[in-house]
Amino acid sequence: MSRPFVLLAALFGLTGVALGAFAAHGLRARLSPEYLAVFQTGVLYQLIHALALLGVGALALHWRSRLLGAAGVLFVAGILLFSGSLYLLTLSSLKLGMVTPLGGLCFMLGWLCLALAAWRARPRGF
């Protein structure tokens, strides 16, 4: 369970930095300040949750927990739904309705699963 989460964390980190640079250098002249802020919010949440996913991958080396796996899956879903919908909104004006809040809910549920996994864990090697 650890390797896929670490791999996804690295890919989301890489693309988050690239998208942040793209926003700073390539979109500043093309987007309104409001849309640029929306895009940057997507980047921020992507990068934060890439780090959270890295943490899930690291913890998975020591804990066997379905809740930990659920946290990782929810963080991935949150990045795709929340950040992805903000990128689509700003770059194409495509409004996806409830997709962004659903992504935010995935983030919150991911943190809840992580907290519950930590509460129930019997860590080895810590």
Task: Sum up the structure in keywords.
126 residues; mainly alpha; 4 helices
What would you say this structure looks like, in words?
This protein is 81% helix and 0% strand. The chain has 126 residues and is an all-alpha fold. The chain has one domain. Helix 1 packs antiparallel against helix 2 (33-59). The radius of gyration is 16 Å and the shape is elongated. The model has no long low-confidence stretch (mean pLDDT 94). Belongs to the UPF0382 family.
Mean pLDDT: 94
Q: The biggest beta sheet, please?
A: none
Poorly predicted spans: none
End-to-end separation in angstroms reads 19 Å
Summarize this, please?
Pfam families: DUF423. This protein is an all-alpha fold and 126 residues long.
Please render the helix and strand layout as text.
Blueprint: H1 2-27, H2 33-59, H3 66-92, H4 99-120
Helix pairs in contact: 1-2, 2-3, 3-4
